[in-house]
Amino acid sequence: MTLRTLIYGARQIVTVTRNRNEKFLCGKDMHDIGIVKSDAVGLSLLIENEDIVAIGTDDDIAREFEGIEVDQKIDATGCCILPGFIDAHTHPIWAGDRVHEYAKKLAGATYMEIMREGGGIGFTVEQTRLASDKDLLVSLVARLKRMLHAGTTYVECKTGYGLEWPDELRLLKILEQARSHVPIGISITYCAAHAIPKNKTAEEMTDDIVNNQIKALKKLMDEKELNVNDIDVFCEKGVYDIEQSRRILLAGKEIGLSINFHGDELNYTGSAEMGAQIGARAISHLECVSDEGIRAMAEAKTVAVILPHTGYTLRIELPPVRRMIDAGVPVALGTDANPNAFSSAMSISMNLACVLCRMSLEEALAAATINSAAALGISDKYGSIEVGKKADLIICRCPSWEHIIYQFGDHTHLIRHVLKHGTIV
Ligand code: NIG
Ligand code: FE
């Protein structure tokens, strides 16, 4: 049975890739985000089940589909339709908060100073281990619902506040459970190598991940108990070095995970060069990336996931996004939502990307949609408004689409409907 939904009357439809089936946009193409505008007549979008089947003026669609039965009509008069945002990097499953550290950071303490004193990720690992499964699920689902209602229809979710296998496995299982509680798309990334547990060295932890954890993970994936997409590591001075990171990432690749990791964040480590060389699909942060690293990523078409909220919160230099775009690196965006950078609003990430990283509005939207989809390997089905793609959409009540970025941190009242797979959520 076909369920048809017609959205009509819209003022603008921002298609992002203009029905050209592009995997991502880079360089100057990021400016051409295929805005269909019509001041005189309304615009329509027809959905069959989960998929977009037609885009056009109200009259054209009415004519083309004359006589067909429509089950649901959504009046979008005066509204703008955008693809749902795709958040390419979050850490959404954890307990406790770190508001006490926020005050310390504002007073001048650095991220690594706090981490070395046992705070930071270590503190959240302790709090997360103490929390019950139920509490972790409830707080995770609340965060995911908040994201969805703020326009994020697909999100990458990392583990990483467990570190040891039993704790990481618990987080994986709770992430899997969350799928049935909230209709947001979830891509799971295994990030046991997020920090070094108190009782181990980085080398011992690397051995454990490569020799034990990855094998246990593979078994559960083969048995279809878990559906994990990517492998991650915090490749950073004082955490996992470049060789340990390479070993962990390659072990993940070996069992079919895609490489998607934290690199060149607080210090230059050569993460971009290493990641491009081993076929990383995405590398996040890159505040300290080298020119050589940018060249390598452009050549390998490794997606750079920019997290402006983190640099802003830590008051560190932001990544050289202009140089990346000019060099042809596909640039995507994420929120990094975690107890250090506590925001899951993609509109805030886009605003910060524009103001602090000097991206244009068009580049920011392309980065938050089609390019984030590419960072997660899902841009064949998500990230743009194209015939044949999933109907993950935001219908906004604003005179033009730019308001969703322009109205800084205050955009939820603009969102009239969020559609996931063609259904209002
Ligand atoms: O992307 N750098 C490592 N991971 C996170 C921070 C997580 C945390 O501080 O809890 C990041 O910034
Ligand atoms: Fe992160």
Report on the structure:
By secondary structure, this protein is α/β, with parallel strands linked by helices. It has two domains: 122 residues, Urease, subunit C, domain 1 (Roll); 291 residues, Metal-dependent hydrolases (TIM Barrel, Alpha-Beta Barrel), CATH 3.20.20.140. The chain has 16 helices and 18 strands. The strands form three sheets. It has an eight-stranded parallel sheet with strand order 8-9-10-11-12-13-14-15. Strands 3-2-7-16-17-18 form a six-stranded mixed sheet, with no helix packed on it. It is globular. The structure holds N-(iminomethyl)-L-glutamic acid (NIG) and fe (iii) ion (FE). The site of fe (iii) ion has 5 residues, from loops.
